Amino acid sequence: MSRVLVTGMGTINPLGSDLHEVWNKLLAGVSGIRPLTQIPTCDLDVQIGGEVLHLDPTTITINDRVSLRRMERSSQFAILATRDALLDARLPLENLGPRAGVYLGAGLSGLKTLQEQTENLINRGTSKVSPFTIPLLMPNASAANISIAYGITGPTSVISTACASSGHAIIAAAQAIASGQIDFAITGGTEASLTRLGIVSFLRMKAMATGYNEDPEKAVRPFSADRKGLIMSEGAGIVVLESEDSAKRREVTPYAELMGYGVTTDAQHLVRPDEHACEMTRGIKLALGMSGLSSSQAASRMYVNAHGTGTVLNDLAETKALQDAFGPDAAELQISSTKSMTGHLIGASCGLETIISILALKHQMLPPTINLDQPDPACPLDYIPHHAREARVEYALNNSFAFGGHNVSLIFKRL
């Protein structure tokens, strides 16, 4: 079984599309949450989000089949982030062939098209429904567009498990590489759900933080006693995973190694995490076991990028899972929720947070949890409040805990 390495990364998210720029903003505690400009919001209780600004159409239109007008926003993000990840990995931008694959995560892709075309059907009649409706909104469109754009003829698929989507996609890509099926994979996730339908749906579930329209950067408050919920964002986080043999042949220097992962399901409730965090805990333990690490070996040398949505129940459950998985050693973990700055990218969140975790390993700097003004006594771990921290870390644990009870934990090792 081949070792699985990370050799390229690319993203577009509310903080920008340049890795260096995004990283510096995270270390500075800059929030990407701002008033929304793409949709009317005057009648919405939440009028803010993590919106991507200034898309460059020249980096998205690849050819007459993969062009700006033929893609939903989620596919546009995926194409742009993939391009940057391929360049970062020193791979060509065409004819990648059968030894390459695409494994993408997407939670709610196509909401914009679904909303717009449903309104056309109801208000304007059948003749006004776009012939591009299905190619635009089908969940696999982003992965298919990547394969067409860059000539990837190996396995291509999209996994949809809500907020864990890109975590599951990364695992599927790693398994294909480790088994020798392919040499490298485009993986991670993309999401573009900042629509009226998306926002209202989360509002009706009472999952979103209200009351911050005039102070958007303060809205996401993970692990703080006064947290009120999540704020939706959009974007993509793409990594190139590659076999050790392929990386050596190409003489590229990898960022990190994917050492282990754990996948479990709560089987309790569609949207509420299990308060006992049994399966979250087991997933973290599985990832540790696959990595060959004990909690005592890992805790003092590990950065944890928490799922950390800022909802009351999620933050409590994740804290309990870390405490139960690491036991007394949990006190040594250094943890942050970068969603406090990026917002929640839903299906793309694990892709982006994988990139952040790997950058933390590379630079030996840990981004903060901003807005942690009143630490919740029920969340007593070290959540790196307010300011970035220099630290010697060898491992990064990236947690994703999703609606549906889907739990993914990934462990990366610094190289």
In short:
It contains 13 helices and 14 strands.
Could you characterize what this model shows?
Helix 2 packs across helix 5 and helix 9 crosses helix 11 (312-326). The longest helix is centred in the N-terminal third of the chain and has 16 residues, at 73-88. A hairpin with a 3-residue loop joins strand 13 and strand 14 (406-414). The strands form 3 sheets. Strands 5-4-6-7-1-8-14-13-9-10 form a 10-stranded mixed β-sheet, with helices on both faces. The protein has helices at residues 19-27, 73-88, 111-124, 133-137, 141-150, 165-178, 196-204, 244-250, 278-291, 295-298, 312-326, 339-342, 349-363, and strands at 4-12, 34-35, 48-49, 100-105, 156-159, 184-191, 235-243, 256-265, 302-305, 334-336, 365-366, 389-390, 395-402, 406-414. It is an alpha/beta fold and 415 residues long. It is built from 13 helices and 14 strands. The model has no long low-confidence stretch (mean pLDDT 96).
Distance between the termini: 19 Å
Rg calc? 20 Å
Classification by helices and strands: alpha/beta
Oligomer: single chain
Q: Characterize the main sheet.
A: 10 strands, mixed
Quickly count the helices: 13
- Report the uncertain regions: none
Taken from the alpha-carbon principal axes, the silhouette is globular
Q: Count of DSSP E strands? A: 14
Physical arrangement of strands within the biggest beta sheet: 5-4-6-7-1-8-14-13-9-10
Mean pLDDT: 96
Relative helix content: 25-40%
Portion of residues in beta strands equals 15-25%
Task: Give, in order, the helices and strands.
Answer: EHEEHEHHHEHEHEHEHHEHEHHEEEE
